[in-house]
Design a protein that fits this description.
Layout lengths: L1 E12 L5 E4 L6 E2 L5 E4 L6 E4 L5 E3 L2 E6 L3 H5 L6 E4 L5 H12 L4 E6 L5 E7 L22 E6 L4 E6 L3 E6 L4
Antiparallel strand pairs: 1-2, 1-6, 1-7, 3-4, 4-5, 7-8, 8-13, 9-10, 9-13, 10-11, 11-12
């Protein structure tokens, strides 16, 4: 069972170039030329257009996967999350950090060479080794890259946050 969780509800008009964004339910927003419109805010996603070739959906959302409808209604954690292509770096990073601090998950991402990698990993305190700097220098933080402990390699690894396609509970893989 899948549920879409909207982060931003917006579309670009390819006729006039303007982006229309709906921020609340029944917030019907048109572009300046009136050729496209969006509605629904974060409650639902609706697009209206003169033709499909002038409408570019730029909504940000992720898809939550649950084993059953009852699991969703009971408020259980989903077994997998997939990101839409427009989800911002900030939202991806926050969701990844929230999940990976809770346990071991499989992160699927596209490597720089284009190859897909399924990496079982975590950043949960107590499950990762403490690494002390031998040189004493502090590594400059980079929000575009996330360092994790790869449990299949027993080593620290990293990936580009923008290249993450999904995160899944390890037991389900």
């Amino acid at each position: 069972m899948q549920i879409e969780k909207l982060i931003r509800n917006k579309a670009k008009c390819l006729k006039c170039g303007e982006v229309a964004e709906s921020k609340s339910g029944h917030d019907f927003r048109r572009c300046k030329c009136g050729a496209i419109a969006v509605d629904g805010g974060l409650e639902y996603r609706r697009g209206v257009m003169e033709s499909h070739d002038i409408y570019e959906d730029q909504s940000e959302y992720y898809t939550l996967h649950y084993p059953t409808w009852d699991d969703y209604k009971a408020g259980k954690q989903p077994i997998k999350v997939e990101f839409s292509k427009h989800v911002t770096l900030e939202h991806r990073r926050k969701l990844l950090r929230d999940w990976l601090t809770q346990g071991e998950f499989v992160v699927t991402f596209k490597k720089i060479d284009g190859e897909l990698r399924n990496m079982p990993c975590t950043i949960q305190e107590g499950k990762v080794p403490v690494v002390e700097s031998k040189t004493g220098r502090v590594k400059k933080p980079n929000d575009e890259v996330m360092s994790v402990y790869a449990t299949d390699k027993n080593e620290w690894r990293s990936f580009r946050v923008e290249n993450v396609l999904s995160i899944e509970m390890k037991e389900q893989v």
